[in-house]
Automatic annotation (TrEMBL):
Pfam families: 14-3-3 (PF00244)
14-3-3 domain mapped to chain residues: 8-252
UniProt-recorded name of the protein: 14-3-3 protein Lil 1433-1
Family the UniProt entry places it in: Belongs to the 14-3-3 family.
């Protein structure tokens, strides 16, 4: 084993260790190291790309949750006219937004410089382009004005590129294709405020997958039906006219980890 291979294996092991310890920032660092040591024209393994995805999803997920909580409190304080509190909250929200921007910029640079260019299979191309769309969408969640418009446009471009490949080369039941449809539909609903397009995309993906469920193996069946359930949950939420449902959580594709990795 060459020193490079040894270092790569060590970094993967350390990333798994960091995951078990729930030290996701360090997990990101280990997996970034792996991604940057891969030679031009060589891809990350499925295990490696899933580790990278899980690491970033946890790091960004904590900040997204914080941002939503702080934004909700800010709205309540504004409605009560507590201007002194609002000033403090806006400043604190800005700190969280700076962290969100830094995380998104980090993975987007890695995707553009290493991961997307080296993707050779349809599956990996869709995986990374979907990831690119996801992190531009996370920027669009809190950016305003021109920056929000730019983030939304970049999200749409990445998701459409992924969708073109997925529709041509991946089965309707493929978990990555389904995860893309799920997150793309969330983008239409939340960022573009287009519930009709969101519902159409989610329903089409669900219907196409359900007609081919009998062709799935046991492992794929579990992964695919989980995402199909999330698609259906969102469709139920989005098509409901009951106002109290507006606060329910919209579902996104979970980061995938292979069962052999002990999760």
């Amino acid at each position: 084993m060459s020193p490079v291979e040894s270092s790569r294996d060590e970094s993967v092991y350390m990333a798994k260790l960091a995951e078990q310890a729930e030290r996701y920032e360090e997990m990101v660092e280990f997996m970034e190291k792996v991604a940057k040591t891969v030679d031009a024209g060589e891809e990350l393994t499925v295990e490696e790309r899933n580790l990278l995805s899980v690491a970033y999803k946890n790091v960004i997920g904590a900040r997204r949750a914080s941002w939503r909580i702080i934004s909700s409190i800010e709205q309540k304080e504004e409605s009560r006219g507590n201007e002194d509190h609002v000033v403090l909250i806006k400043d604190y929200r800005g700190k969280i937004e700076a962290e969100l921007s830094k995380i998104c910029d980090g993975i987007l640079k890695l995707l553009d410089s290493h991961l997307v260019p080296s993707a050779a299979t349809a599956e990996s191309k869709v995986f990374y382009l979907k990831m690119k769309g996801d992190y531009h969408r996370y920027l669009a969640e809190f950016k305003t004005g021109v920056e929000r418009k730019e983030a939304a446009e970049n999200t749409l471009l990445a998701y459409k590129s992924a969708q073109d490949i997925a529709l041509a080369d991946l089965a309707p039941t493929h978990p990555i294709r389904l995860g893309l449809a799920l997150n793309f539909s969330v983008f239409y609903y939340e960022i573009l405020s287009s519930p009709d397009r969101a519902c159409n995309l989610a329903k089409q993906a669900f219907d196409e997958a359900i007609s081919e469920l009998d062709t799935l193996g046991e492992e794929s069946y579990k992964d695919s039906t989980l995402i199909m359930q999330l698609l259906r949950d969102n469709l139920t939420l989005w098509t409901s006219d009951i106002t109290e449902d507006a606060g329910d959580e919209i579902k996104e594709a979970p980061p995938k980890r292979d069962s052999v990795e002990g999760q």
